[in-house]
Design goal:
heterodimer, A: 101 residues, alpha/beta, Transcription Regulator spoIIAA, five-stranded mixed beta sheet, two-stranded parallel ribbon, B: 557 residues, alpha+beta, Heat Shock Protein 90, 3 domains, five-stranded parallel beta sheet, five-stranded antiparallel beta sheet, 15 helices, 39% helix, 23% strand
Chain lengths: 101, 557
């Protein structure tokens, strides 16, 4: 599985990890990963530690997720990006819409 | 049994020899002490009958020499004497005699005494054998322990304990520690901590440290998540450990900025987050069973996360800490430990806390291994972020790929191309950027020139899905298409160039502004990214060919 979805023990964080290549081929899987998150307003954490490749379609998917989740989540964080993945996020000014940590 | 008779009187020798042979023993004779000593080693008698008064060397002098010759095995010496005054008898015993028999004697008494001493001799023999076996096993055990010690020490060489933000106190109950504290920085400047407590203590649990530490260091170096780590530890330990052995463990990852703590606690006492004011902020309670019990199907790697404030410390310890007892045989207990902990928390006095624990224990024997770890959180770790080496290749090359509809419809051809390219020296470090450039250029060509899709519909969430649905439909109907990707490398300029064109009549969509005011659009970002990541972009052949240059000598990120 290239996309994994795990709630933390207290249910307050939803961690979605993407392995390898993050692009439109994961459209369905990625959407499913953030669906049915319940009413507990979790923080969504996108863990990019194992993401090696990323293109503009992935950026679009992240923006769609943000739009679709709206206020049903506390925050969305993009974490553990490798330096070269981080550069793509920075150049696209994703820091304006996500917490990149 | 072999009996040696030492007597200067031939008549006595004959009489004793006859008697003892009849008892069923072998007999040899010597006429004085010197003779006896001469033949002793080759003869190896089990019992010696020794006359007191003899020429050359008498019985009193002979006895200690014979005892010395017999080494570790007890040699019974019976003095034969006509003298029965107390003083002579005492001298016999002092000289090392074990018994004496006064002449004249009853044969049955001699027989009984010989048999009794033979039994003692036999016991001594078996004792010596056992001692030798014991010494052998003890040496062997020591040697084997040394080997294991050596392996453990080597296995733990990667342990990074010398960080300013980390303090540890480890006190094994004996030479081998059944507790295991592992620490290592990850590739992103993140930091991993493993605190484990194997059942029991001593050599057996310490050997469990080998597979766990190797796995920990490997996975930490790769920067894997805590959930992946614990799954792997459990998988290994379930397979390796006997059923009655397992490993309670607390595994944590601190992010590079120090703000995010991810942990998994399987059977370790509550770890504590202590805030800047020295109070318990949060208890990181055990939510899982220890490692090495549940099969991979039953095992849960579900982790917990917390966001930590500045000046927060994580305290984690094994149960040896709270189970230590004082002189009055009272357990320290979790409550007792927390009282001590908070006393020293404000001052951040780790040494003070350790001293307090030692004072509590005094000279009481320590029954379990003790591990105590304090990790400063909430501030950047300042650990290095690993970067791939950037050695640029000196060989010029050119690679031209023609993709027809079958290759285009199949699995992403771009990732395959990049996977091949990264085997060339100096390319791997740039793989993310190269993939981005190639993927953006290829998708732009395919989606706009060939498939005639309109990016505008990606603006809404549904539009986004619709766009990719349409893409799939049109892709399935694709015929007579060829996309050319021409990759060239010039070592002089260290420039890698891509030229992408198709046999379609339509050109590329030119770059759009992707930012309108503060709003970032969900589309139109691709060409902007190409411009950002390349050193030169050009549309050639009336917009039908996209030419991109990328400088491999620049740092990848």
């Amino acid at each position: 599985m290239s996309v994994s979805r795990d709630f933390s023990n207290d249910g307050k964080q939803l961690v979605i990890a993407i392995k390898g290549k993050f692009d439109f081929s994961l459209v369905q899987e990625f959407r499913q990963a953030y669906s049915h998150i319940g009413d507990s307003q979790p923080t969504v954490i996108i863990d990019l530690r194992e993401t090696d490749y990323l293109d503009s379609s992935a950026l679009g998917m992240l923006l769609n997720m943000r739009k679709s989740l709206g206020s049903s989540v506390k925050a969305i964080q993009l974490v553990n990006a490798k330096p070269d993945v981080r550069r793509i996020l920075d150049i696209s000014r994703f820091d304006k819409m996500f917490v990149i940590a | 049994m072999k009996v040696l008779i030492v007597d200067d009187q031939p008549a006595n020798q004959v009489m004793l020899t006859g008697l003892i042979k009849r008892f069923g023993h072998q007999v040899s004779c010597a006429s004085n002490g010197v003779e006896a000593i001469d033949i002793f080693t080759s003869l190896a008698p089990d019992v010696v009958l020794l006359d007191v008064m003899m020429p050359i060397m008498d019985g009193f002098k002979t006895a200690p020499c014979l005892k010395a010759l017999s080494g570790d095995v007890h040699l019974p010496i019976l003095f034969i004497t006509a003298l029965d005054d107390q003083e002579t008898l005492l001298r016999c015993l002092e000289a090392g005699g074990d018994d004496f028999i006064s002449v004249p004697f009853e044969p049955v008494v001699l027989q009984a005494k010989l048999n009794a001493h033979a039994r003692v001799r036999e016991l001594s023999h078996s004792l010596k054998d056992k001692n030798e076996a014991l010494a052998y096993h003890s040496n062997r055990m020591e040697r084997e322990q040394n080997i294991v010690s050596h392996m453990l020490a080597n296995a733990l060489q990667e342990n990074e304990t010398e960080h300013s933000f980390l303090k540890t106190y480890l006190a094994p109950a004996n030479e081998f520690n059944g507790d295991l504290v592992l620490t290592k920085g990850g590739p992103l400047g993140n930091f991993y901590l493993f605190v484990g407590d194997f059942t029991g203590h001593g050599l057996a649990p310490a050997t469990g440290a080998l597979p766990v530490s190797q796995t920990f260091f490997d996975l930490a170096e790769k920067g894997l998540s805590v959930a992946n780590m614990v799954e792997e530890f459990n998988r290994k330990l379930v397979r390796l450990l006997p059923d009655d052995m397992f490993c309670a463990a607390f595994v944590a990852e601190l992010s590079a900025n120090g703000e995010r703590l991810t942990y998994w606690n399987g059977g370790i006492p509550d770890a504590l987050l202590i805030n800047g004011a020295g109070q318990v902020e949060k208890r990181l309670v055990p939510e899982h069973m220890a490692l090495g019990i549940l099969s991979p199907d039953e095992f849960s790697s579900q982790v917990s996360h917390c966001f930590v404030e500045e000046n927060t410390r994580l305290i984690t310890y094994t149960d040896g800490v709270v189970e230590m007892t004082n002189k009055a045989d009272e357990r320290l207990s979790e409550r007792g430990f927390e009282i001590l902990l908070l006393r020293y928390a404000c001052e951040r006095d780790f040494e003070g806390l350790v001293n307090a624990l030692q004072t509590f224990k005094e000279n009481q024997e320590q029954l379990d291994d003790i591990s105590l770890v304090c990790l400063d959180c909430g501030g950047v770790t300042n650990l290095p972020v690993s970067k791939p080496e950037n050695n640029v290749t000196h060989l010029p090359f050119r690679l031209v790929v023609y993709l027809k509809e079958d290759e285009i419809k199949g699995q992403d051809p771009i990732i395959k191309l990049v996977d091949s390219l990264i085997h060339l020296e100096g390319i791997r470090a740039h793989k993310t950027a190269l993939y981005l450039l190639l993927a953006e250029a290829f998708n732009n060509m395919l989606e706009h020139s060939v498939l005639q899709l309109d990016s505008g519909i990606k603006q809404t969430g549904q539009g986004f899905d619709e766009y990719y649905r349409t893409r799939e439909q049109r892709l399935a109907e694709l015929k007579d298409v060829e996309i050319e990707i021409d990759i060239q490398y010039q070592p002089d300029s260290s420039l890698l160039s891509f030229s992408i064109a198709s046999n379609s009549e339509n050109g590329f969509i030119e770059c759009q502004e992707n930012v309108e005011g503060d709003e970032v659009l969900a589309f139109g970002r691709g060409l902007q990214l190409i411009k950002n990541f390349s050193s030169y972009v050009d549309w050639r052949d009336h917009g039908r060919r996209l030419y991109i240059e990328y400088d491999l000598s620049l740092p990848p990120a």
